[in-house]
Design a protein that fits this description.
alpha+beta, five-stranded parallel sheet
Length: 537
């Protein structure tokens, strides 16, 4: 039922149900004229919120309710029941919070018509105050940088705010580069230029930081200019690793880092023989894209392990995913190493393996990992570890005061592995780092405390993964053959990570469990392979 009564202007009231229709300590979506409302009954309190995750529109009703927030079933974003504010990522926007009350046995909401139609909410942003002399600089235009500049303005920072990016695009949804390779930059932008202008965020495009002088608090730019700062956040991300073999510089040998890379691969591979080198997420997603609808004439994947995803997902899950690809006509060459790319008259002709075999190829995509983009910091006082990642504390502060770092280049203490220093190249982690760094730049002490969560989509099948850590055993519940399963990654008696496919919201539930500081045990998952779906807060 839904009975609308007008309040005036943008506001409206509607009776959405009888009191007895409310969920008992749970969530339920109700339709109202102009949209949907999620009603949550949690710990004796009623809340009315936007019904969809602001990231990709997942129905929050099927998510996870715990300790005053709801977690998205697809990718793990979290929203406060009290405010609708986004508290963990991915996504940038919050969701609407509506008024709700029970009157004479009927449940009534008061809502903004605009927010009801949008089902998401942009938080209020400060603007620059010309009387505020402070300068904050963000190096990097990826997820961490975008999240940082937004959070600074959301939290009221009114000094000068400058983002530096070597690309000629506004921040964009980078995970889509290997999943939908024909999308142009304007189709995947996170925000418009008008958005950044509206809150006085300066974006220097096509410019790199060449050196950071931490004593003089100055960034030396590739343009020859110098940019002063009072506090700085560095989030320059990773650079695709090159194989460094003969022919690696041929124009038909690609990596994926920018929209131009993805668009060029999509065009060049059309109707051609494509070879993918690397069997982790970037390579496998690119292969799935090129094999769908026969975009490429053929797709061959070369990897050095026995099955794809062997290190991250294990032999059994990796083997079943390989079978999924083979069902789509993709060929695999496992346990092999590429030694050379051959050419004739400057054009790629083949891929030479360490067995001596040559695989004919018109286009090659290499997805063999990334290296941290930190070379420009080596002359600074900022500490790097042996792998050239920037070491930071739980507040994302580096060895130098007022210098913060996050995203793919940061080695940070991860709370679910007892504070061990880790570097994690996940979109969700980077977005969280941006927010945490911004709060600490404003002296609002905030520790890094987010559970890693990532996802992939392969031939329409969505796999979710949460947690972190080396494992020594994998316990699989459900039906792996029919791609409806939960894989539990165990180290000793502890489940350190979980992957699921066709079993939502298992990954979201376990992410919330890890967030609360508890773990499943190996014995529990052996006894019940679907236990992750049965957990309650």
């Amino acid at each position: 039922m839904s009975r609308k009564s007008s309040v005036g202007g943008d506001m409206m009231e509607a009776v959405i149900c009888k009191e007895e229709d409310l969920p008992q300590d749970g969530m339920k979506t109700f339709e109202v004229e102009g949209g949907k409302v999620l009603v949550v009954h949690h710990k004796g309190q009623l809340s009315a919120l936007g019904s969809k995750c602001s990231h990709y529109g997942a129905p929050l009703e099927t998510g996870v309710l715990c300790n005053g927030r709801v977690r998205c079933p697809w990718h793990g974003a979290c929203f406060s029941l009290a405010t609708g504010d986004i508290e963990d990522f991915p996504g940038l926007d919050s969701i609407p919070k509506y008024g709700i009350e029970v009157v004479d046995g009927e449940v009534k909401i008061t809502a903004s018509k605009t927010l009801l139609a949008a089902d998401k909410r942009v938080k209020t942003l400060a603007r620059r105050d010309p009387d505020n002399p402070s300068n904050f600089v963000v190096i990097g235009g990826g997820a961490a940088g975008a999240s940082c500049v937004e959070t600074l303005r959301q939290e009221g920072y009114s000094g000068r705010l400058v983002m530096i990016t070597p690309e000629y695009h506004l921040p964009y949804d980078r995970p889509k580069l290997s999943k939908a390779m024909d999308l142009t930059p304007d189709k995947i932008s996170l925000r418009s230029s008008e958005f950044y202008e509206s809150c006085d965020i300066e974006i220097l495009q096509g410019i790199s930081a060449e050196r950071v002088d931490t004593e003089g608090k100055m960034v030396h730019l590739s343009s020859g200019e110098e940019l002063p700062y009072d506090k700085i956040f560095i989030a320059t991300g990773g650079k695709p690793r090159r194989l460094g073999i003969s022919g690696d510089d041929l124009p038909e040998v690609y990596v994926i880092r920018t929209p131009e890379d993805s668009n060029a691969i999509s065009a060049a591979a059309s109707g051609k023989h494509a070879v993918i080198v690397g069997t982790s997420f970037i390579g496998m997603e690119a292969a799935a894209y090129l094999a769908t609808n026969e975009r490429a004439a053929s797709v061959t994947i070369i990897g050095y392990t026995s099955v794809p995803f062997q290190r991250s997902l294990g032999l059994e899950v990796g083997g079943r995913i390989q079978a999924l690809f083979e069902e789509q006509g993709v060929k695999f060459i496992n346990g092999a190493k590429v030694t050379e790319f051959t050419s004739e008259e400057g054009r790629l002709t083949g891929v030479v393996l360490d067995t001596g075999e040559t695989i004919p190829a018109d286009v090659v995509v290499t997805g063999v990992g990334v290296v941290p983009n930190t070379e420009f910091l080596k002359s600074s006082d900022i500490s790097l570890n042996g792998a050239a990642y920037v070491t930071v504390n739980e507040f994302l502060e580096t060895s130098v005061p007022d210098v913060f770092c996050g995203g793919d280049i940061a080695a940070f203490p991860l709370f679910i592995v007892d504070g061990a220093s880790v570097a994690i190249g996940h979109w969700q982690v980077a977005l969280g780092h941006g927010r945490t760094a911004a709060l600490n730049m404003l002296d609002r002490e905030s520790e890094v405390k987010s559970v890693p969560f990532f996802w992939t989509v392969l031939f329409g099948k969505s796999l979710r993964y949460t947690g972190h850590g080396e494992y020594d055993d994998v316990i699989i519940g459900g039906d792996l053959e029919n791609l409806s399963f939960i894989a539990y990654y165990c180290r000793g008696d502890r489940v350190v990570a979980l992957a699921s496919l066709g079993k939502d919201p298992a990954a979201a539930k376990y992410a919330e469990m890890l967030q609360q500081g508890t773990f499943l045990t190996k014995e529990q998952v052996v006894n019940d392979g679907n236990i992750a779906l049965k957990m309650t807060c």
